[in-house]
Amino acid sequence: MQIKPILTAMRHHKAGTILIAFQIALTLAIVCNALFIIQQRVTRVMRPSGVEEANLFAIDNQWADSASVQNVGAQIRADLTALRQLGSVQDAYATNSFPLRGWGWDNYVRLRPDQVHRTSDSAIFFTDDHTLATLGVKLIEGRNFTSSEAHDVSIKTLAAWPEIIISKDLAKKTFPDGHAVGKPLYVNSDASPSVVVGVTDTLQSHMTDSDITPFAYDAVLVPGYLLQGMTRYVIRARPGQLQAAMRDAKRALVTQSRMRIIDPKDGVRTFAQVRAKAYERDYGMAMLMGIVSVVLLAITAAGIVGLTSFWVGQRRKQIGIRRALGATRADILSYFLTENAMIGGCGVIVGILLALGINLWMVMRFEMAHLSGLYVLIAAAILLLLGQGAVLAPALRASRVSPVEATRPA
Amino acid sequence: MLAHYLQLGLRSLRRNPMLTALMVMAIGFGVAASMITWSVFRVVSGNPIPDKSEALYTALIDNRGPQYNNAGNEPPEALDYDEAVALIRARKAAHQTLFYNIGLSVMPEGSHDLPLNASGYATNTDFFNMFEVPFQYGGAWTAADDDARAAVAIISSDLNNKLFGGANSVGREVTFDQHTYRIIGVTGHWDPKPRYFDVFAGMTYAEPPDVYIPFTRAIDLKIDTSGRNNCGGAPVHIESAEAWLHRQCAWIPVWVELSTKADAQRYLDFLTAYAAEQQRAGHFNWPPNVRLRSVMNWLDFEHVVPPESRISLFVSVGFFVICMVNTIGLLLAKFMRRSAEIGVRRALGATRREVYEQFLMEAATVGLAGGMLGLILTAIGMQGVSLLFEPEIARLAHLDFSLLVMAIGVAVLAALIAAFYPSWRAAQVQPAWQLKSN
Predict the structure, then answer these.
(1) pLDDT tens readout for residues B342-379
(2) Least confident window among B5-19, B45-59, B212-226
(3) pLDDT, tens digit, 9 for 90 and up, residues A210-255
(4) For residues B395 and B312, what is the distance between their CA atoms, to the nearest angstrom?
(5) Which site from A389, A409, B384, B415 is most exposed, i.e. has the minimal number of CB atoms within 10 Å?
(6) A197 lies in which domain range?
(7) Best mutation target, A208, A299, A371, to test chain B (most B CBs within 10 A)
(8) Domain annotation covers residue A263
(9) Which family does it belong to (chain A) (predicted)?
(10) What is the DSSP letter of B225?
(11) pTM of the complete model
């Protein structure tokens, strides 16, 4: 293929050439950053919580008399007994917070009492002997709590917690040698440590914000019922009976006592709803970036079709002359394809630089990760293919120009 | 003449329906994407109290030591009880308020339902005047009520509707958490967004508050905060309810009103002196570390604008730029295709300026059509905002008159800018050359 005549022809429609190249460059820059954002968000959403989420739901139960919360311990126990007796319920426990909830209690974890900098900032989940079974989380080391270990815990008289269970990730962070059970950790008081009695398999904390990701899987399970204005019940329904269990559980609690507030709108939520809420910005962002990318590619393709069609129309006479002088249809077709590939190539090169520039700026501005080369390559390939696809129809039309055109006035 | 060009432009739109449709769609999509993301951005980045944003400040004091502070040795984002009460007692500002979040239960009269949750603030009298709370009935309680630890309450019109059917309930009694309060005021609709003064507890985009009771009364009743309690990792020793109240944790925001910069400087000096005094008294083992942040400074510091909002706005603007580049190319093709027509017009005596005007008008009609399409797409896209942001933010984004005007204006302006070069090229057409080649 002759490159030189193409370059000469391009000089005659500089503006159009530059516009297409520029458009391809900008589209590439935005599309590969958008793809990268989608990938990051999807990775976040896809990470496991460690919880068996199907058939699980939670009830936010606010006590109607906040002044007497010091006395709700007996009510919590009665509630749990009633919940566990329901036919549609497999198991249940009471807590202050649970994985993916977004808000909750977190404490610094230290290895020594005099340590100033935290080893971890870990979620504090109040639990009892039914917690692991309800969540469907396995114990990989040590033992579960016993029913006698779950005492009433007042937030206003915080003593050290004698025994705790920690998540796998926290165990790895605090005791890299792999033996956490039996070791002391300072999670609450610096006067006396808590002893690790068990280690769970992967368990996500309540934190879902991106800026606390390093602690996303650090959780401390403390035996006890926290006496505060809000008690949350996490309940596992028998398989297939989720809807029934949600209805039954709420009714059972109200029968126990009416002195409670369960928000009619979102007081009872399935774990699927909890997850959707936790990641709603990520879903939304991925969807927005997806829509933007598709529309952008469509507009760029349409632009290429429009401009190339114009060029073909403008050059019918020249094409006719070339055909009359012996050029085949394939020659004409490959002329336009090559021309477009050259413009696209320039656009892609500029676009890659632009994409890296935008990413660098986003890294500084939004603390995003560095763009991986893979996404640049994918986007570049998509754009080159798209460009060739878009130019195909006008180029075919050009190749069908009859040599007779050369003899007609323009 | 311009009207005539407009007519010509409209007729020309019909001549190349494909090209026209492409341009209108490019501008329409570009405008819609920008308008949708802008409608969210203007809410989340707006000034919630424009007339006072330079006069209201939140006061922060490091009360637990640098080893527990975040990067930059920033003090905690709220105060503990002792510091908060000390600042209010000092009365060094024109107005000063402190508050914490409360969630109380209330029984709707004659109802067989479960009790309702009424969330709001335990605060003092200055809160209402400082944050410009409007009143439907009655008004704020007085400083004397604060000092008397009075059992009075202010409720929102929303809660008033639920409890009293919207009647003037001032003077009537209401029971929150088994304690009786006398209603002293009913607020009008009040929902500043973002809720600048309560970013600390994450209530930035929350539903409006329903109830307010005196801070002193709430402390007497030992009502606990329903908001955030941040001990920052400092070990807390608590043996009694009294110790719990005086814990070294951040849970009470304090705001002060200082009308001039000089007042603000004086207040900052006072805060520094206060912290120095605490250091001398042996309460703080570190040099004074205090901050005084105005409304916008505070919102900026707290990163109140979600990064998603900024990123989507930038992406939309980039998208719009691409749509414009696309439009330039298409306009160029459309105009140059009519070189022969231009040649004839020029030969018949039209000046370059006239050709230029004609084509700009034609582009303006494209912009107008694009704007219309953009408006329709914006209206549709608004329904989708809830996909990107939590419902609390999504419900704030809405299509109003200013957005409508802006969408059309931006579309026409974009089309005109895009047409500058193609029209100039069209005006440069040499009549002789065109006539000859025909």
Answers:
(1) 888 888 888 889 888 888 998 999 999 999 999 999 98
(2) B5-19
(3) 666 788 999 999 999 999 889 999 999 999 999 999 999 999 999 9
(4) 17
(5) A409
(6) 65-258
(7) A299
(8) no
(9) Belongs to the ABC-4 integral membrane protein family.
(10) P
(11) 0.85
Q: Contacts of residue B33 in chain A, CB cutoff 8 Å? A: 292, 295
A241 and A125, same structural domain?
yes
Q: Give the per-residue pLDDT at B234.
A: 63
% of residues, chain B, pLDDT over 70: 95
Q: Going by C-beta distance under 8 Å and a sequence separation of 6 or more, which residues neighbour residue B160?
A: B136, B137, B166, B167, B169, B186
Residue A132 lies in a domain: yes
Q: Identify from B117, B119, B428 which residue to disrupt to test chain A contact, counting A C-beta atoms within 10 A and taking the largest count.
A: B117
| CA A329 to chain centroid | 51
Interchain contact B437–A (C-beta under 8 A): yes
The SS3 of residue B221 is coil
Would you say B176 and B118 are in contact if contact means Cβ atoms under 8 Å apart?
yes
B284/B328 same-domain check: no
Q: Does A62 touch chain B (CB under 8 A)?
A: yes
Mean pLDDT of A96-124: 85
Tokens 């042996």 locate to B282
**Cβ-contact B24, B370 below 8 angstroms:** yes
> Which string of DSSP letters, residue by residue, matches A232-286?
EEEEEEPTT-HHHHHHHHHHHHHHH-S-EE--TTTSEEEHHHHHHHHTHHHHHHH
Give the confidence band of B180 by pLDDT, cuts at 50, 70, 90: very high
Range of the domain at B357: 2-45+306-437
d(CA B324, CA B34): 13
Rounded Cα–Cα distance for residues B360 and A144 (Å): 78
As given in the structure block, the two tokens for residue B93 are 């500002």
- Of all residues in chain A, the one with the smallest CA distance to B425 is A15
